[in-house]
Every structure is written in C-alpha cells, then in structure tokens.
C-alpha cells in the first residue's frame, strides 16, 4: 500500500460548500485503486470511504492520478494515515452507542470473547490486566481484545480467535468505544478503523 494526501478548495456543492476547504487522505493499492479515503473539512466534518462504503450522498472513493508530475499529491507514511483513520469519527458513519446490542457471530461474522471469563477458567495460563489498570485507561490509549470470527475449512465451520488492538476514542458509563488498529488475519468482516464497543471484561491486555 501507498499513502498520499492533498488539499482541495472549497466545494461549490451544498452541504460541502458550508464546510470549507478540505484535506484528503488516500490509501492506494498496487493497481492505483483507492482502498480507504478520509476527507477532513475546515468545519470539523470528517467523511470516510472504504470498499464496503464506497459512495453516499456526500461523495465516493476516487482513484488518484499518481504520476511523477502530479505536484498536488504529497506522499505520507502508513502511520500518519493510520493514526488519522482510527482517531477520527465520520459524519457519514454514525458511531454506535455504548447501549447498542453487541455484534454476534451469527449476524455479524464476529463477536468479542470475554477475557475475564477465559482468565477465570485458566487463571495460571491466561493473565489479564488488574482492575486498576483498566480503570486508568483514557481516550487515546489502546486495549487488546479477543475477537472471534466465523471460519470454515475442509472439516467444516469453526471459530477463529484473534487478539487485536483497539484505540479508545470514547468512554461512557464504564464502556468503551474504539477503532480497530490492526487488520485481522482470518477475516475481512472487520477492517482497521472499524468501530467496536466493548467493556472491561473484554480487555485482554493494555
């Protein structure tokens, strides 16, 4: 993957015209197709697009003219793009509430495993953070979660568990809302930047 950004002038189309100038961030694959895109407006509005949400009434994924003489494009690092992606909400992707029903394997293809329950069953071999460590977590910190994915091989369906980092973006009523930091190895139903709601019981590491 390669990463770029460029500035655009104020749009002439409403409601974008009310949001001011914009800075666009692009994640581009080897075929020069944009995989993820962020638009940051002066007014503080963020728009995000991915292959699973490629267009809406505000805009769409656009492929770049990546040529040596395209002086409008500035190449950036993966870290710069990633940090912007995971720490910014999106006006065209409403963030879930801490009271929303949890994701389930049957309906979403993934769900969170309770790290606390696993620790209770295997206290000697599976350690989790102390309650004080979890209580000290704040916005901007990271937590590692156990995420179960539906999978299948020649023997039939099974559950694959991965340990994935989530960046905390909001804490409310003892629950956390965060953005996935890492790409799952066994499934594409979750991607970096996807929002996950979790509780203290789900935290395997900090």
Task: Provide tags for this entry.
single chain; 206 residues; mainly beta; 2 domains; six-stranded antiparallel β-sheet
Q: Could you describe the 3D structure shown?
A:
The chain starts with a strand and ends with a strand. Helix content is about 15%, strand content about 35%. It has helices at about 80-85, 105-110, 115-120, 130-135, and strands at about 1-10, 20-30, 35-40, 45-50, 75, 110-115, 140-155, 155-170, 175-180, 195-200, 205. The chain is mostly beta strands. The longest helix has 10 residues, at about 80-85. The model has no long low-confidence stretch (mean pLDDT about 85). It folds into 2 domains: about 1-85, no CATH class; about 105-205, no CATH class.
Describe the structure concisely for a colleague.
This protein folds into two domains: 2-87, no CATH class; 105-205, no CATH class.
Give the fraction of residues assigned to helices.
Answer: 10-25%
For the CA atoms, what is the radius of gyration?
19 Å
- In this structure, how is the largest beta sheet organized? 6 strands, antiparallel
Strand content: 35-45%
Which structural category do the helix and sheet elements fall into? mainly beta
User: What is the tally of beta strands?
Assistant: 11
The tally of helices reads 4
Q: What spatial form do the alpha-carbon principal axes imply? A: globular
State the end-to-end distance. 28 Å
Return the average pLDDT rounded to an integer: 84
- SSE pattern, N- to C-terminal: EEEEEHHEHHEEEEE
């Amino acid at each position: 993957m390669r990463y770029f950004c460029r500035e655009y002038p104020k749009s002439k189309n409403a409601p974008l015209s009310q949001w001011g100038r914009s800075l666009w961030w692009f994640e581009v694959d080897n075929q020069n197709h944009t995989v993820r895109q962020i638009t940051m407006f002066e007014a503080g509005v963020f728009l995000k697009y991915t292959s699973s949400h490629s267009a809406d009434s505000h805009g769409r994924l656009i492929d770049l003219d990546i040529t040596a003489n395209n002086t409008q494009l500035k190449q950036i690092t993966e870290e710069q793009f990633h940090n912007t992606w995971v720490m910014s909400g999106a006006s065209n992707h409403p963030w879930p509430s801490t009271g929303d029903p949890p994701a389930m394997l049957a309906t979403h293809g993934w769900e969170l495993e309770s790290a606390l329950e696993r620790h209770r069953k295997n206290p000697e071999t599976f350690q989790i953070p102390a309650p004080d460590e979890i209580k000290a977590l704040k916005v901007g910190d990271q937590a590692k979660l156990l995420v179960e994915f539906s999978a299948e091989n020649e023997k039939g369906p099974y559950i694959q568990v991965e340990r994935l980092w989530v960046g905390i973006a909001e804490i409310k009523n003892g629950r956390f809302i965060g953005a996935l930091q890492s790409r799952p190895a066994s499934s594409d139903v979750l991607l970096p930047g996807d929002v996950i709601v979790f509780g203290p019981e789900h935290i395997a590491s900090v």
